[in-house]
Design a protein that fits this description.
mainly alpha, 2 domains, two-stranded antiparallel ribbon, 16 helices, 49% helix
């Protein structure tokens, strides 16, 4: 029986991580172009089924009615990937570049190396934020280095660009690993970053070169002296690391197969025990704070305050609204979404008439026999139903009597024609 699609990063096995990171990896000196996209589309065909969009009828119906905020924006070449898994990977990367470095952006550090690292991390946001808005939100100048904006807004293409850049991977890994507490769980994005580093062929070298910067950033996060060292192995290794850079894949496969049976029952419990991660609401709050700050600056300087939400990535722009009359940004609430108007019925619904009080059991205060429920026969009758029935009976009797009298006169005339 084929495995169901994986929607959570923590449910990915080691082999799943290596497979997906090998696919979503654009070499550093290349750009997203047609030839690379064609090769991507061919490679996706050979991916495991649980890493791709399900083709079964019921899962596709469920996906159709799933909230758009949980599904990734994918280009035609990456449309067969699982959209929910790609969206969570993308949000994990955006989280490291926005909310996780807010402490340093609000109060810039004095150390030159940390400031340079922070600038490189903020520059990653230029991949999914249009250039003009990116410079406003992250205080960048037009001459500062920035990456080319991904015009397709495909989240898989953005992840592939990050996965092929060793500098980005090293900086993001420092950002993620330094927020880990002592003896605490490892942030889930570490496994993805290590998967990308594995395919560079020099993962150990990159981690060793990042050790001094890792110590500075970690000490700055904890309020310690930046130059102080506390251990001999600065950059901690994850559970998937090996000294010689090799791995026993047969052992991994056996362990993955044994864990598949326990994954469904313990998946939710394992997610609760993981390190708490930011959600898209936290990232939206970050952008909302920056946009509001930019709006206040424009108002004080007298510059026109236009709507800039269209320059954000679709994963966030649909949740932020701009009030043109006040120039204020706000978060879209569920009540702001217009309701779908109901289609009126072709046949108008008849107006129900109150029932007749024909007996003591149908009157209020008549004792135990009183009941508010009425039968269908009395529910649809008019108030003058009894009078209408009497009038109809009287007309019927009168008409029959007239017909009988006329017939008798005709018989008498036939018998006595001379009269």
């Amino acid at each position: 029986m084929p495995r169901t699609s994986i929607h959570w990063v923590e449910d990915m096995s080691h082999n799943d991580t290596l497979t997906l990171t090998k696919l979503l990896r654009l070499p550093e000196r290349l750009q997203v172009e047609e030839n690379w996209l064609v090769r991507q589309e061919k490679k996706i065909v050979y991916l495991p089924t649980h890493l791709k969009r399900s083709r079964a009828l019921i899962p596709r119906l469920v996906e159709k009615f799933t909230s758009p905020s949980t599904k990734a924006i994918l280009c035609p070449s990456h449309r067969c990937l699982d959209p929910q898994l790609i969206r969570r990977l993308f949000l994990s990367i955006v989280d490291e570049c926005t909310t996780r470095v807010r402490r340093f952006t609000d109060s810039p550090p004095s150390d030159r190396d940390i400031r340079a690292w922070l600038t490189r991390v903020k520059t990653i946001n230029s991949l999914w934020t249009q250039p003009i808005l990116y410079r406003y939100l992250f205080n960048a100048n037009p001459g500062d280095p920035e990456f080319e904006y991904t015009h397709s807004e495909c989240e898989a293409c953005i992840l592939a660009t990050i996965g092929g850049n060793t500098t980005m991977l090293a900086d993001l890994r420092i950002c993620a690993i330094t927020r880990r507490t002592n003896h605490g769980p490892t942030p889930r994005i570490i496994r993805i970053l290590d998967g990308w580093l594995y395919w560079t062929g020099m993962a150990e070298t990159i981690r060793a070169e990042s050790d001094p910067l890792y110590l500075k950033v970690r000490n700055a996060r904890r309020g310690r002296p930046i130059t102080q060292s506390y251990d001999s192995h600065a950059m901690p290794e994850t559970i998937n690391d090996r000294r010689d850079g090799t791995r026993d894949y047969k052992r991994d496969d056996r362990r993955d197969n044994r864990s598949e049976d326990r994954r469904d029952d313990k998946g939710d419990d394992r997610r609760d025990q993981r390190i708490p991660e930011s959600t898209d609401a936290d990232i939206i709050g970050f952008y909302l704070n920056r946009l509001s700050r930019m709006s206040r600056t424009h108002q004080r300087s007298g510059r026109p305050n236009n709507d800039s939400t269209h320059s954000l990535h679709p994963a966030f722009r649909d949740n932020i609204v701009f009030d043109a009359s006040t120039g204020i940004y706000g978060q879209r609430q569920e009540d702001d979404i217009p309701l779908v108007p109901s289609i009126p019925s072709i046949i108008p619904e008849p107006k129900r008439q109150p029932p007749m009080a024909s007996s003591s059991y149908s009157r209020a205060g008549s004792g135990v026999g009183f009941s508010n429920s009425t039968s269908k026969m009395t529910e649809w009758r008019h108030d003058d139903y009894a009078e209408q029935r009497s009038e109809a009976y009287r007309k019927l009797v009168t008409r029959d009597s007239e017909v009988t009298q006329d017939s008798k006169e005709m018989e008498w005339l036939q018998q006595y024609p001379w009269t």
